[in-house]
Amino acid sequence: MRTLHHLWLSPFSRKVRVALAEKRLECQLQVEKVWERRPEFLALNPAGTVPVLVEEDGLVLADSYAICEYLDETHEARPLYGTEPRGRAEARRLVAWFDTKFAREVSELVLREKFMKRFLGLGQPEGASIRAGLTNLHYHLDYIGFLAERRNWLAGDQFTLADIAAGAHISCIDYLGDVPWDDHQPAREWYARLKSQPSFRAILADHIPGVPPPKHYADPDF
Hints:
Elements: E1 3-6, H1 11-22, E2 28-31, H2 39-44, E3 52-54, E4 60-62, H3 64-74, H4 85-120, H5 127-150, H6 161-175, H7 185-195, H8 201-204
Parallel strand pairs: 1-2
Antiparallel strand pairs: 1-3, 3-4
Helix pairs in contact: 1-3, 1-6, 4-5, 4-6, 5-7
């Protein structure tokens, strides 16, 4: 069986997990504590980052972008980017938005300070970085709401990897209880629909040892 090396609150790992579920591909999950820098894992991916997917034939794929492109090219059912060229281009643009801009302005600041520092023993969280990330989050939720009010899904009529990437990042922040849903109703309605997707259920079932999620985390009717 294929194996996905992942980390609990890695948005990129979560994106691949949901993509695999969309393609209905079975996968064994292997938690990879990247800070340990295991030689066996570095042999798979010298960059030392997750996700890393090892296929049944031994093929090793690293980086969520490369993995998702590979999955979409080798498994035609349930295309991750949609079926229409303009929509596929828009889906790719939005995936880049969340994996680059959202990651830099929100995910990296909040997750590093509130989660990773705890496991790495790097001292107390830096309040200024957390505040900056949560301030930036409002801007991104406004943009999600703007898109959701004008389209069926973020990139257009079809559910695509754009929704998956956005949900992967937001679900990590939501696991920590830091998403101001009451201030962003359109984004909240979009996320409620996303939480109802069968491929997203495994993400909502995550429970990190010692770090329980808030009560609303797995509830589609939050």
